[in-house]
Model the fold of this input.
Amino acid sequence: MPTMLDATPVTAEQLLALREPGYRHELVAGELRRMSNAGWWHGAVAAAVCEHLRRHVREHRLGLAFAETGFVLARNPDTVRSPDAAFVRIERLPPAAGRGYFDGPPDLAVEVTSPNDGYDDVHAKVHSWLAHGACEVWVVAAGPRHVVVHRQDGTSVVSGEGDVLRGSRVLPEFAIAVRELFPAIG
Done:
């Protein structure tokens, strides 16, 4: 397996075989990116997003919702990104179950921010998702408790804790109070 110091680009297949406890990885243009596992609040928010997304997708038979799944966005060199949650329309799903990463972008990628995420890093992920064909990217800001919806047409909308997040054309009829994405504790 090539290391981060090697000049040889890492492939999606090599990334899939990588086992390094305590870390998650993404691949950007063949370069391995190591990330620490998420903290508990990030995980709780991501789970809430996945729960609501999955429920809506199943009830309306729209496709599949995913959690922390790798999506191959480019080949030679390979780019594999893993959003916290994602959705793929039914007509884009493979005809049978398979192994490995999903080939292509999700229709919706959801990134839940962590306290250490810098603006540039989050913006780069949003740009990558949209440049590779995702229709929408939701950035769920776990600290300030708001959601920014970035669309393929270059527009974005910010919804605060008192607002309702709507799924637009990507998720017809999806609507949830933003505060529902942040678990109540205490």
